[in-house]
Amino acid sequence: MSLFKARDWWSTVLGEKEEFDQGCLCVADVDNSGQDKIIVGSYMGYLRIFNPHPVKPGDEVQAEDLLLEVQLREPILQVEVGKFVSGTEGLHLAVLHCRRLCVYAVSETLGNVEHGNQYQIKLMYEHHLQRTACNMTYGPFGGVKGRDLICIQSMDGMLMLFEQESYAFGRFLPGFLLPGPLTYSSRTDSFITVSSSRQVESYKYQVLAFATDADGRQETVQQKLSSGKKLVVDWVLNIGEQALDICIVSFNQAVSSVFVLGERSLFCLKDNGQIRFMKKLDYSPSCFIPYCSVKEGTINTLVGNHSKMLYVYQDITLKWATQLPHVPVSVKVANLHFSWKFPGNGNCIAFMWMLLLFDFIFCLFVFVDPGSSETVVLSVFLKGNFPPSELEGNCVLSYDSVCSFTLGIPKFAQCKFKLPLRLVCFPAQPSKSANHKLTIDTNKPPISFLTIFPDFADPSEDDQANVLGFQFLTGSKITLLASKTSQRYRIQSDQLEDLWLITKELTLRLEEHFKKQNCKDFACTFSGSVPLQEYFELIDRHFELRLNAEKFQELLSERAIQFRAIERRLLTRFKDKTPAPLQHLDTLLEGTFREVIALADAAEENQANVFQAFTKLKSATHLVIMLIGLWQKLNADQVAIMEATFLPLAEDTQELGWEETVDSAISFLLRTCLSKSSKEQALSLSSQLSMPKDTSRLKKNISLFCDRLAKGGRLSLSTETPTQQATVVPGGCATIPESDLEERAVVPGSTAAFSHHKHLLQLRISKLKKSIFELNNFTVEKFCAT
């Protein structure tokens, strides 16, 4: 996960539950006013044009930013802007539907009222397509001057070319099975696509225009609907994987290149199809865009992936990575001109990256007036029908000095914040019975809840001085009781994970209360049993959902293979000049399609359940760490080691899950600081982390971990073996004979292979001791290198 997160400069919500694809975003001067606009089309048929303006932090997007919104009643597959109307070199908007191509003129009418100017679109012409469209490209085909021609690729592999208002001709791609990305290279006057055989293919426009039918007979109207011209490929390159997108790059300081984004690789090709370079990607990309680099002879590329990350490459070198709030669908680069007042420097042009996400448009990076004070207002909403695992967060600010627009050094500042408990729960009636109960001991007399919980307790009710009820927004209830005769507090609830936030809030408020009274010896302890069995049930539930996710993935893969096989047979029969009976292949195709959709819906629901289970597991893990810390009176460094051990992942994935990561981390501690003999230190750890078959070894290692702590073991990152003292600590975990644990528990590992996890533990400790302000003197390259 990246240390950096993208900052919103401007964003807006696009409808409700609308869907978008790569071709649905375009940035161009569509109204010929001299300034770029953002054009977005959705599968719901909505066409929107935006002119973004900077707003003060916390303010909503101005209504004037939306220049035009119109519903075209048909799904919008792609939007492009070019010189599509004869007799003028003005830019017009081309909108591709499934069976129509429409070209519009966008115009502005000056308004006489406070609402501002009015924008309209006027249909210049349209083409009704005989075949279902997939995508399109445009350019000066054949070297024409002052106008752009349009080429549309159909779902059955026909390239349909339009010379503005008139249809020119159509040609079938040889050996076609499924449509791929399509683009046009004006330098070579060629169309470049990637076929279903995983080959990059280039077709010259002249060859395409002069190609003839194989039999040379005159076409009839019926033949135009069922057949097209055949053509010969110019060059072919086998890349060995399906392509997501193609882009032609031609800058003054860089060689003209063809960029191809594959499923696992990024290719850069020469005009003749030879590979300039390629970059293997260790993630699943979703979109990309090459753009001009400041270094001569190189090209920068933005690549977004399905893990909500955005990467910046200079050729094959990774220069930057940032975290995004959503999975990017399309990314564009534009120059938007705004006036920013800098002392002594006049106006400055802001350079931004724009990303189309599933529901939002985000514009990243902005230059702020030096010396100004800005207030950022954030809105926080509950995600899912379950309580969050924590209310703390970090706010990281990156900023540049005035001169750093070209050669400056970026600086960073960080602050921690805590959201109020009242944000996720509200007062409720206490409950007398509960399934889970915890007792926290203190060394001071109990404090009235009217004093430490003034935002929840009602002063008019005296019974709330010792009993207080909480109810989360999700419905679960927690009861807090203070003993009248002893120095104890009890927290109880029907769910183990719900105890965490209230227990944490109680200890924090008690510490703040006694700190205000200059009481330095206040301490909380825990002498009960750590609820490991209930904790293990949450682990099993989370692991079971991960196993279900694997099963859904396998079933989806099988049905997808079956679906493609049926598609191939149907396409072969449809393209045959003497069609054979379908033999119920269409029925089988429809049934398989329904199975794929049902499996996809089930997999999506299971993924939501995995996220919910992981959140509950994190809450329970926080609680177990806290109870063990109070039970064994661990210091801050030792608690930090436990947090790094039990909470190493901010996000749980199928490739790297919580169970295998925590199991390896605990095994490392059992082999080092918690080991009993040199025999245990000699055990090797596995070289790779993989999803286990079950959770039995993890649960045994957790039990053994607690048992070693109960017998005097102490957590440390030192490689020396500490001498364990045979001390007896009251309470703690349910006793398990250590001999049985050691016989059954396997401590896997290799010292070299697990050095990375040791580094993670050390990194978490160092973060507690050092401030992020030390990064101020680092350059971007040095910071990324570290």
Q: What is the topology?
A:
Layout: E1 8-13, E2 25-28, E3 37-41, E4 46-50, E5 66-71, E6 78-82, E7 92-96, E8 100-109, E9 118-128, E10 133-139, E11 149-154, E12 158-163, E13 166-172, E14 182-185, E15 190-194, E16 199-204, H1 205-210, H2 221-226, E17 229-230, E18 235-238, E19 243-249, E20 257-262, E21 265-269, E22 275-280, E23 285-292, E24 299-305, E25 309-314, E26 317-323, E27 328-336, E28 350-357, E29 360-364, E30 392-399, E31 411-418, E32 425-428, E33 436-442, H3 449-452, E34 467-472, E35 477-482, E36 488-493, H4 499-516, E37 524-525, H5 532-575, H6 585-632, H7 636-646, H8 658-671, H9 678-681, H10 696-710, H11 738-744, H12 755-769, H13 780-785
Parallel strand pairs: 13-17
Antiparallel strand pairs: 1-29, 2-3, 3-4, 4-5, 6-7, 7-8, 8-9, 10-11, 11-12, 12-13, 14-15, 15-16, 16-18, 19-20, 20-21, 21-22, 23-24, 24-25, 25-26, 27-28, 28-29, 30-31, 32-34, 33-36, 33-37, 34-35, 35-36
Helix pairs in contact: 4-6, 5-6, 6-7, 7-12, 8-10, 10-11
Describe this structure in words.
The two termini are 14 Å apart. The protein has 13 helices and 37 strands. Helix 4 packs parallel to helix 6, helix 6 packs antiparallel against helix 7 and helix 7 packs across helix 12. It is an alpha+beta fold and 786 residues long. The strands form nine sheets. Strands 32-34-35-36-33-37 form a six-stranded antiparallel beta sheet, with helices on one face. A five-stranded mixed beta sheet has the order 10-11-12-13-17, with no helix packed on it. A four-stranded antiparallel beta sheet has the order 1-29-28-27, with no helix packed on it. Strand 21 and strand 22 form a beta hairpin.
